[in-house]
Amino acid sequence: MPEALVSIENLEAFYGDAQALHGVSLELNRGEVLALIGSNGAGKSTLLKSICGLVRRKRGTIRFKSEGIGMLPANEIVARGIALVPEGRRLFPSLSVEENLILGSQVARPGYWSLKTVFDLFPVLQEKRNFPSTSLSGGQQQMVAIGRALMSNPELILLDELSLGLAPIIIKDIYELLPRIVGSGLSAILVEQDVTRALKSAGRFMCLQEGRISLAGEPTAYTRDEISAAYFGN
Amino acid sequence: MEWVNAVVQGILVGGLYAMFAAGLSLIFGVMRLVNIAHGDFIVAAAYLAMVIIQGTGLHPLLSLLIVVPVAAVFGYGLQRGIFNRTLGKDILPPLLVSFGLSVILQNGMLELFTADSRKLDAGPLEVASFNVLPGVSIGILPLLMLLSAVAIIAGLQYLFYRTALGRAFRATSDDTEIAEIMGLDNRKVYAWAMALCMGVVAVAGVFLAIRSNFDPFMGPGRLIFGFESVIIGGLGNLWGTLVGGVILGVAQGLGAEINPGWQLLAGHIAFLVVLAVKPHGLFPRNDG
Question: Which domains does chain A have, with CATH numbers?
Fold first, then answer.
């Protein structure tokens, strides 16, 4: 059996005294897309932030390519091949579109993604490369956020609420590009409020409820009611 | 013509104030650190230059070749060893630590160099000047200070907007968390910023020591001039800082022309007027 790309065991994460994750475990294989669903405050974003090192107070094991990365700072985790597209995009306002993208290649990992391939994926960004990132529309900003993450040539990309605040047509466009992004040899964990879209985009899903796994498996293995019960709780 | 001369001299001294302010502006811009000890570091750089000159016989301006790198290395270490430990969401710890450093520096310098006023001797350069109008002359040294300030600010501006390090400074200033997941080590970015700041502080310290007497307790006064220049020009705007320094210098010059006792007061009034009319300064940075 091939070794899992990511292996998490009994992860507990805290914000101050509040515990956000309670013994979460998961495995993700190479080339796999995992959808992480759950209501607000279920711990989805906390799980992503724990993987990429932004949540420091945690217990349990996080392994990436068999190496324990749970205690590493965020800047060393990205160098190992994990990139985050954060919720709300969080572009650098004082940097231009191109500078935002270049900053993504700070760790300079070799691979397919470069300014050229990102511009091929999102041609509109090439036209606006010298614009301030804040002058772009929400959809274009999301493209910059995705491109910025790809520029580090990650092996695992964490996508946090891609559709947040975007028009449906833009969301559709971005999700249509997802197979192309993952097809470049990436694995992905996708956090999404739009459950239908998330389940359609992923081979496997995991539902969180109050920091605990309430359901996990292949989307086709469960009925809509079962997933709904795991999402909202009974 | 006396008034014209006061304005010209004010513009020239504004260069020195801009040098006091550039480091403050840089550090606040990158890491939101208000360094209360900034003025004391300027004075410490002046004493360092004095010691080097006494030991080597170098001209004060040539001593910059040693003082600047030493100050920059010191700044890097200061940030890694002390300030990085205090930075976080609360701005109070670094403020208090810099206040403590100010007290330590002042008393350390008093212990080492006594309270006697000192001055660096730059020889004939100090009195060299040329006339531009009848009754209006420009001193070579003040002109050199202003040109140095312009060069420093142009250099910082280039570094900020045209280099990878500048990009890292701006990104870290925008969002430390996201900068970190892009692979930047914020602690190192801050240390480079402090090294750069201390390099500028060293130049300011040497010019200060050539221009006037200095003693261990004149740091807080230089800090105030620096603060006022930064606020007048607009936070985070380096060219604005130069303009702020010049406005402060001109206000002081005009105040002194009215009454010598009004020199400092006029500068503070100009600062208050700008603060009242434009609380974000004349040219605040606008990144959207």
Answer: 6-232 (3.40.50.300)
Interface test with A, best of B173, B181, B186 (most A CBs within 10 A): B181
CB contact at 8 A, B22 and B156: yes
Per-residue HEC secondary structure of A77-118 comes to HHHHCEEEECCCCCCCCCCEHHHHHHHHCCCCCCCCCCHHHH
| CA–CA dist B242, B217 (Å, integer) | 25
- Scan for tokens 């995991």, then name that residue: A206
- Looking at domain B2-120+130-277, does it have CATH number 1.20.120? no
C-alpha–C-alpha distance, residues B40 and A216, integer Å: 61
**What pTM was computed for the model?**
0.91
Cβ distance B229 to B21 under 8 Å? yes
Cα–Cα distance, A182 to A185 (Å, whole number): 6
Entry field: residues in chain A: 234
Q: What are phi and psi of A219, to 5 degrees?
A: -55, -35
Beta-carbon separation of A86 and B178 below 8 A: yes
The interface pTM score, or ipTM, of the predicted complex is: 0.91
Written as one string, the DSSP assignment of B8-54 is HHHHHHHHHHHHHHHHHHHHHHHH----TTHHHHHHHHHHHHHHHHH
Length of chain B: 288
Q: What is the distance between the alpha carbons of residues A190 and A192, in angstroms, rounded to a whole number?
A: 6
Q: Sort out which chain A residues have CB atoms less than 8 A from B287's CB and list them.
A: 93-94, 132, 134
Residues B171, A132: C-beta atoms closer than 8 Å:
no
Asked whether the beta carbons of residue A132 and residue B288 sit closer than 8 angstroms, the reply is yes
Cβ–Cβ contacts within 10 Å for residue A72, how many? 18
Tens digits of residue pLDDT in A187-223: 999 998 888 888 998 999 999 999 999 999 998 888 8
- Sign of the C-alpha dihedral, residues A207, A209, A215, A220? negative
Q: What are B210's strand-pairing partners?
A: none
